[in-house]
Q: What sequence folds into this?
């Protein structure tokens, strides 16, 4: 199956200080650029606004703050690489719950410096998992909204069609 790619860009104003040789450096601000390359795994209308709001809600906990003061970076060195890795894991989960797959994340702390994690090699397995989980959630919601007689009638109709 062929999928169309979508790219999202977000900007995060936040400061951090990193540890080098067990010494904490000076706190300094960045306007972080976060670029997400994605594909929509499940069929249906593309709800860009829903995706954007979900990601912005996650990033909002870091907006205009010192990253060092927010978990997990209160115990993990908030280097560009560590931030990207943590954001990748969280954003991957957010997108998967909405039927999307993260192919690549790029985070820049300056226009000339970025860190990239490419997830394309994992995409086939992740697509199947996202599709299955998404369909199960849709089916669960669908069946919860019907009474037992409607579900039984629908199942009998499906069996009769086969």
A:
């Amino acid at each position: 199956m062929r999928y169309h790619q979508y790219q999202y860009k977000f900007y995060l104003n936040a400061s951090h200080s990193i540890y080098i040789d067990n010494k904490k450096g000076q706190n300094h601000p960045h306007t972080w650029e976060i670029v997400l390359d994605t594909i929509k795994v499940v069929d249906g209308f593309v709800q860009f606004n829903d995706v954007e709001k979900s990601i912005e809600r996650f990033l909002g906990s870091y907006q205009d703050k010192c990253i060092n003061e927010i978990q997990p970076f209160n115990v993990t060195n908030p280097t560009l690489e560590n931030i990207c890795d943590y954001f990748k894991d969280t954003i991957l989960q957010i997108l998967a719950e909405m039927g999307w797959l993260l192919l690549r994340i790029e985070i820049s702390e300056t226009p000339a410096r970025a860190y990239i994690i490419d997830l394309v090699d994992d995409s086939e397995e992740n697509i199947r998992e996202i599709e299955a989980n998404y369909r199960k959630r849709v089916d669960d919601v669908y069946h919860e909204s019907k009474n037992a007689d409607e579900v039984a009638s629908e199942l009998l109709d499906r069996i009769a069609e086969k």
Remarks:
- The longest strand covers residues 28-40.
- The chain has four helices and six strands.
